[in-house]
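Researcher: Here's my situation. A collaborator sent me these components and asked whether they could plausibly form a single complex. I don't have experimental data yet, so a predicted model of the whole assembly would be a useful starting point for our discussion.
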Amino acid sequence: MNAAAPVATKRSRRPIPWTVIPFAAILTALVLMAIFAPYIAPLDPNAQNLLARLKAPGHEARGAVYWLGSDELGRDVLSRTVYGARVSLLVAFASVILSGVFGSVLGMIAAFYRGWVETIIMRIVDIVLSVPAILLAIITVAVLGPSLYNVVIVLALTRWPRYARVAYGQTLSVANMPYVRLSRFMGAGWLRLLGRHVLPNIAGALIVVATLEFGLMVLFEAGLSFLGLGVQPPTASWGAMLSTGRNYVATAWWIATFPGLALFLLVLSINLIGDHARDRLDPRSR
Amino acid sequence: MSAFFLKRTVQAVIAVLGVMTLIFFLQRLSGDPVLLLVPQNATQADIDALRTSLGFDRPLIVQYFDFMRGLLSFDLGRSYVQNVQVSTLIWSRLPYTLMLAGGALVVAFGIGIPLGVLMAVRRDKPEAKAMMAVVLAGQSMPTFWSAILMILVFAVWLGWLPPSGAREPSSLIMPSIALGLLSMATFARVARTAVLDELEKEYVRTGHAKGLPMRRIVMRHLLRNAAIPVVTVAALEIANLLAGAVIVETVFAWPGLGQLTVQAINARDFLVVQGVVLLGAVTAIALNLIADLLYSLIDPRIRIEGGAA
């Protein structure tokens, strides 16, 4: 909980286990794929070719090779999978940042001010956490309408209590440390106290939460898009591609298989790295 | 002691009221709540008539209390799109979702618990690491992808199981496995941590000193103690299973509440969506409460700490 500085440096010198390295490489590759999608994708992800509908992987038509096959509108599955990484990572990144900042600040404030501020914030945290996030997301999208931005907003609104709870618990334990009390005694304002003394000490725990949440957010975005509540066509999203692929599973297995594989690898590598980060930064939870 | 029960129950009631309030304001956020309730082909005159008859032209605070009173008397309203009571729709679909959740729980428990116990007992051995890899894979597998892969292999290629629907008992197999996999990973992890904690206790060492075989120590003594955290997690996992059913039911065309919800969203039938989400939320809150109460019954320390905080 309150790991002293020297212990922390000793921990970070421990070598990274060999099992994590390949997954870090996969994650890096997927991130690069998202950033450089226009240079990597062999074809335009939205270009339709009705003569080359539902073609198996390796099909060649008019000089273009469909390495991973084509979908029901003759679009290249490989190019759409490459572009789909953009949506997944963008949504996950934006919602983790939004909910992380919002939740951490509220959690710190609750622990710092105590009293009725604490009661109100932590009760809201309890309420939101007691309802499965996917249900809250579904009803919010049903009201606001599906779009990329709404998905980010929905995810941020339903996930911030995770960070708030951790920030709250951690701040409570740090706020009574002698150096924080001394700093307060010497006249430091709340912003300085929280920013300079509390945040650096609780950042590790928050980063662990953020990593594990990142994987969940990728799955949530894909799930919402799969249900037709997320990113709207024709934008390539893995969830939406899987939804199409489900309808063609008997005739064109490749439409669902490859975006699903990409999704699985992304989430698996994030979870592995998250687990590893937790073992390092938070020795209490094995 | 009863102070803790009372406090937790009051909290749960506040949570239910909070969720209802949240939904009320969400409806208003959309701009015009009437538009959420009418069929897409409704005329302007219909919309205006409905607005007056439902009282959406009254002050917000009056509407709020009206809304809450309706829900608290278990009146979920009438779907204007399908022209039936929302509760009738929910009742007709509920058995299917419960069946699916039950099947998934059997899969999750039956595989997850033995896996977790083995991982803890054989810790640091290669087979434990292999099992951990299986658990991690299960946790990272999107349900809708594993579901599609199962359809591909067992229904399309091998033809062993029906790909969708709920016409025969074997239809339940694939949806249950797809839904249970994620919870399986959770159960395995919790069981592993619980058993690892217990392995360090004195009574295990005493057992070893008496010369008891490991199998007997685990089966006779350790599992009972390790069961406490597993039972509480089980209550919470049921809530997650019900939420996950939305996706699994869509993949397998399973006629439960999840499919009802997705159909309702596409038909812009907001009252049905609201009804299912409320039911899910109340169930989740109730299960949370049961988990806490169970835990405090089994382990009195929680009661004391929780009551003091």
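Model: Some features of this prediction you could bring to your collaborator: The two ends of chain A are 13 Å apart (CA to CA). Chain A touches chain B through 47 residues (CB under 8 Å).
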